[in-house]
Amino acid sequence: MARIRVGLLPSSSFMVGNMAVPKYADAEKTQFAVDRETGAKLFTITLFFMEEDRAEAMKITVPETGLPNGLKPGVPVMPVELFATPWARIFNGSLSDGIAYRAERLDLVGGPASAAEAA
C-alpha cells in the first residue's frame, strides 16, 4: 500500500477533538492493533485540522509511545511524520474507500513541555 507524506502549510494547526482510544485488530475487540515494527499498541485520536479558511476533523492513528502526557480536548498539537494511505475494499458487494492517517507521534504546541524543550 502506498504511503504518502502529508505536506502541511506553516499556518496549519491541529487541536485535540477527543481522547485517544485503543485500535483493535479484530471486530470483537479482543486483540489490540500493534505497530508492525515496534510492537507498540496503536491508538486512534480525532484531531481538528485547521488551515487557512477551512477546518475538518481527522482520525489519526498514533502508537502509544507517540502520545504525550497532557492530551485532552482543545489542546493544540502537531502530528510528526504524518502519512496518508488510501484504501478501498468491497464488502457485501459495496465499495468502501477512504484515507487512513498515521503519525509517528503528537507534539504538544505552546505548552509547558514546548517551553521546557526550548530552554
3D structure, described in words:
With 119 residues, the protein is mainly beta. It contains 1 helix and 9 strands. The chain has one helix spanning 112-118, and strands at 4-5, 13-16, 21-22, 42-51, 54-63, 76-80, 83-91, 94-102, 105-108. The termini are far apart.
Biggest sheet architecture:
9 strands, mixed
What Rg, in angstroms, do the CA atoms define?
A: 15 Å
Distance between the termini: 41 Å
Number of helices: 1
Question: What structural class do you assign from the helix and strand content?
Answer: mainly beta
Beta-strand percentage range: over 45%
Helix-strand sequence: EEEEEEEEEH
Shape: globular
The mean pLDDT is 89
How many extended strands? 9
Q: Approximately how much helix is present in the residues?
A: under 10%
Spans with pLDDT under 50 lasting ≥5 residues? 113-119
Q: How are the SSEs ordered, and which strands pair?
A:
Blueprint: E1 4-5, E2 13-16, E3 21-22, E4 42-51, E5 54-63, E6 76-80, E7 83-91, E8 94-102, E9 105-108, H1 112-118
Parallel strand pairs: 5-8
Antiparallel strand pairs: 1-7, 2-4, 2-6, 3-4, 4-5, 6-9, 7-8
